[in-house]
């Protein structure tokens, strides 16, 4: 059985590259025939993965973080070809939501076992235009921070993100966002809006705690106007999803979410998707995964 493998050299500050040989060895010893797809950018990875799927690969295995999975998603979603994950990024929110074993050897064994047994899980996927995503599409404060962090050349790693948070806090103000959720229109001042297929984003923040990637619906978390202090105080509550109890936070469920507002870019799976306005559609069963141990609403499992 031929399996295409994406190894993102940059992911996890070199962790994915360091794991490449181990992953290939484990795949071979499970009786599979892996081929590493040579790619140095996300766009190249998408092109190679699409060709591998068209060529009949039994699965695409993404060794990296959410950005690597996002590249693989563009090739597999809607095709029935399964995605396997080996978590090796700084953010592994999709692997977390699906219960993929954190230990790489165990992750490879789990996905190889499913492939050999012909077992896979069907999950919903988010779509904006022709872009697929699997975790959370966000806009507002959080996407401005990600945008800013990507423009900063210094410092490296987590501290770049922390600096971006400080810079964006300094210019914090809510935007008027219009949401149309399954036809119902609301215009609200929002600090941020998160459209969740799964619960986590940003490397383990449970922004949409009730999101179930197998229910055909998004969970939409809308955070209303917050002061700087309130936003800082809300951050730890994101780690366990208790922010949704705050009176400033509203949660909705919908299969189709239109978002419009001024000068805001949406991000999903840690990657830029499109500037507003966008229409996000939840496409039931569009994504097939192997090696997942949980796919029915992570926080309830
Ligand atoms: N096969 C590949 N080769 C090179 N780059 C890739 C490949 N696949 C994806 N990428 C790109 O590498 C970047 C980092 O990948 P990823 O998000 O998986 O790792 P990460 O450690 O979580 O990174 P970050 O925290 O910077 O998002 C993404 O922007 C992605 O598009």
UniProtKB/TrEMBL annotation:
Pfam families: DAGK_cat (PF00781), YegS_C (PF19279). The lineage of its organism: Bacteria, Bacillati, Actinomycetota, Actinomycetes, Geodermatophilales. Keywords: ATP-binding, Kinase, Lipid biosynthesis, Lipid metabolism, Nucleotide-binding, Phospholipid biosynthesis, Phospholipid metabolism, Transferase. SMART domains: DAGKc. PANTHER family: LIPID KINASE YEGS, SPHINGOSINE KINASE. Belongs to the diacylglycerol/lipid kinase family. GO terms for biological process: phospholipid biosynthetic process. Residues 1-132 form the DAGKc domain. Its cofactor is Mg(2+). GO terms for molecular function: ATP binding; ATP-dependent diacylglycerol kinase activity. InterPro entries: ATP-NAD_kinase_N (IPR017438), Diacylglycerol_kinase_cat_dom (IPR001206), Lipid_Phosphate_FormReg (IPR050187), NAD/diacylglycerol_kinase_sf (IPR016064), YegS/DAGK_C (IPR045540). It comes from Blastococcus aurantiacus. This is Diacylglycerol kinase. It comes from the Bacteria.
